[in-house]
Every structure is written in structure tokens, then in C-alpha cells.
Amino acid sequence: MVVGEINKKILIIVTFMLLLLVAFSGCVTLSRAYIPDSIINNGWHENTALRNTGSQFLGLEKWSSSTYEINGKYPATLTVTTLKTLILPDEGELQNRITETIEETFKNRIQLNESIVGERTIVKQHKTIYTLYNGTDKIDGKKVKIIGEVWNCGSSGTSIICIGFAYISDADIENTENWEKIVMDPQATIENIIGEEGLIYNIACH
Fold first, then answer.
1. Number of domains in the chain
2. I need a surface site. Which of 40, 53, 87, 117 has the fewest CB within 10 A?
3. Residues near 152 by Cβ (< 8 Å), separated by ≥ 6?
4. Is 110 a member of any domain?
5. Which segments in the chain show pLDDT lower than 70?
């Protein structure tokens, strides 16, 4: 009898939670972070074919990804993912997530030699956490640089997750121009690279 009453209460609680999830599933709206057109120049462009959106947990978690790229001898890409949940995740958790993603994604192709963790403030005055990697392509020996950078935007209630990747050598000739475009800021926070038109630095998230 007691067990039956407990099971009944559990069933009521579960049913209530499911109804609550359904009721709020349409309440999570996503404002996609993006790089202003004025910053996308000198061969950089958004590859709209790689735009991706999705949701899970009855619509309580939504995301949208955009990929910006440049081709040539020193190709580079930057993926900007906007994540919306009912409660903003801890930024330390976001950093751990992006670190795991980078190391898992590139482990078969890139030898990651070292990583550096730091913080900076971007144009929207958000304090971000970034992780830098130097690496080497296991197939052709070319040098690469990778950045993972995250922050929470309280104004839009979203989390922003960025992964930038750039080849910086070709036949032992180094060229960091495309890498610099990804990471530059006016304070020269990263590797003393200074500039106002950095792609990540200018991301509009609200």
C-alpha cells in the first residue's frame, strides 16, 4: 500500500514535469550571434551551406552555428555557435566543453603541441575565456594555430562558443595574416597581435 502510494506520487511528479517542459518548450527563443558584414573582408566570407541549427530537450536547448572561412595557401575557418538554454551554463564548463571538442576533433589530423589559457574583453564588453593551441599537420607537416573562446551574453541569455583554425605555414614559409584576422584586438591581448577588425573580437551577440 505504501509502495503503491509512493509510485503514484512519483507518477504525478513526472507527469507534472513533462507538462511543464511542454509548456515552456516554445519559450526558448534564440538570437544568433554573428560577425558584422563590415568586418568580413579581404577574402573572408560566410559559408552559408554550413549553417546549422538544432534543438533538444523538447526545445529547451537550442543552438545555431555559422562558419566563416578564407581559402588559399593559408586556409582558415572560424565557427561561431550560439547556445540558448533556460539557465546559462558556467563559463568554466563551457571552456572544458570546447577544449574537449578541439582535442577530439583534431586528434587524428593535428599534433597539438601546447596550449595557453587566458582572458580578454571583446567589443561588446564581455569577458571571454580562450585557449590557444600550436600544432602541426600530421600529414604534410604544416604549422597550424587553433583558438577556442567562450563567453556568456547576459543581454541575450546565450552562450557563445568559437573555434578558429588557421594554417600558418606552406613549404616552410610562414604567413600568419589569416590567423591574425581571427584573434586580433585593440589591446593586442593574444600574441601581441593588435587590430580593431578581429573576427571574434567584433562578434555581435546582443
1. 1
2. 87
3. 88, 89, 91, 94, 126, 158, 159, 160
4. yes
5. 1-28, 55-60
Phi, psi of 53 (to 5 degrees): -135, 160
What gap in Å lies between CA 163 and CA 101, rounded to an integer?
9
Residue pLDDT, tens place only, 101-111: 999 999 999 99
Nearest residue to 99 (alpha-carbon basis) of 71, 130, 77? 130
Residue pair 177/44 in contact by the 8 Å Cβ criterion: no
CA–CA gap between residue 185 and residue 205 (Å, rounded): 17
Domain holding 72, by residue range, is 28-183
How far apart CA 198 and CA 183 sit, in angstroms, is: 6
Q: What is the identity of the amino acid at 15? A: T
Q: What CATH number is associated with residue 98?
A: 3.40.1000
Close Cβ partners of 50 (under 8 Å, ≥ 6 residues apart): 65, 66, 67
* pTM, entire model: 0.84
